[in-house]
Description:
Elements: H1 6-10, H2 15-18, E1 23-25, H3 29-34, E2 42-47, H4 53-65, E3 70-74, E4 86-93, H5 95-104, E5 111-116, E6 128-133, E7 136-141, E8 147-150, H6 152-157, H7 160-171, H8 174-187, H9 192-208, H10 214-234, H11 240-254, H12 262-282, H13 292-302, H14 307-314, H15 322-330, H16 332-354, H17 370-376, H18 389-395, H19 400-403
Parallel strand pairs: 1-8, 2-3, 2-4, 4-5, 5-8
Antiparallel strand pairs: 6-7
Helix pairs in contact: 7-12, 7-16, 8-9, 8-15, 8-16, 9-10, 9-16, 11-12, 12-16, 13-14
Amino acid sequence: MAKIYEKSILLDQDREKKGLDTIVIDENVVDVLDRLDKKAGQVLVLSSKRIPTVFVDNIHDCLERSNYVVQRYTPCAQNFKLDEGVGVIVAIGEEEFLNRVKIESYCEDTTLVAIPSEFSLSNVLSRECNMEYGELCIKREGKVPDCVIFSSELMISIKSEDYASSLCSLFSKIPSVCDYAYRLAILGEEFSTTCEDILSKFDKVIDTIKWRTCDNTLKVFDLCLELDSVFEKVGLKKGGGDQLSTTISRFMKAYDRRNFDIRELAFSSALIVCRTYLKFLSKKTPYGVRDYSLDIEGGKEWLRLSDNEAIKIAKGYDENYKYEDYKVELMRKELYEIAKISNEILNRANERIKKIYPDGGYHFRYYLTAKEGVKLLPLAPYYDYSDTLLSFIKERGLLEFAKKI
Length: 405
């Protein structure tokens, strides 16, 4: 049993009154609910379509045998409305599914117990939820789970491709480590020790996922708890990988390529961005002059944006970058080492994760071509990502080559 995330605990003042831990490992959902007030109300069980029916059936039957009233059992809930009398929601699924449940239950006086099919819990325990509505990705507030149950049984029982996707989601955070190093370099603070420590934990995960057993699954989760705690401590946030992933996702929808996994897309973006960082930091390159018109044209052609939307993506910041240029050149060697380690770990993870897929990761080839990936790199937006190394490189005209292909 683990108890972390004091910041998240403070978001729900009733958690301590309910007698619930923030995170429990391999604990029966009935034992968790037994610690609640017996007047908590009826239980609503919701699961995504990726969760094995047998796993959900076991939870449902276990609750009924313990005299809980399970009002509704929905094996695939896209949208739902709470009926009167529901006091507890047990939600089982991946991050996107849990976000929907968190949003729908935000204003409800209910207890939310989440059983994620993910290793990393930082997004599950966050109040902020990214939801896609048509072509738009909107941030909305959701209910922070009162308790999160990590189930090694669930992680073993989900399909191989879903297990691999959860690992893609984890390793897609690696470019954020490079961006964290870049921000500290600008501030003149030491970053090598912290970044190397974070990356070493990612490296241990790769060694642990060779075989999908209960013991190895729990070891991976322990490492992810450590990573999430470090992320929370240092304030690691979304970076260049998420920046590019936003653009690629928009491109896929614009051309009606909707049969893709957002976690796999994030991992592919991380690979492209880390290679870009390594190439930029490997040698001093004279800065060019950024051509904003190419950004606007690219946004309209490749992402099918309106004029105003294309201008918003192309718009940079009219700041004096001389100081930032100086600090990056001063710390180029140290930043290069972090980018090099990140790239090596991502390449190892890519090789290991693809072996988990039944098709060996062959379907990744159909997401987008190498040319498309290079073309989309300069179109990554600035808004929400102004302090990434990718934005630094882009603003100095060093991605102009991609737009002319």
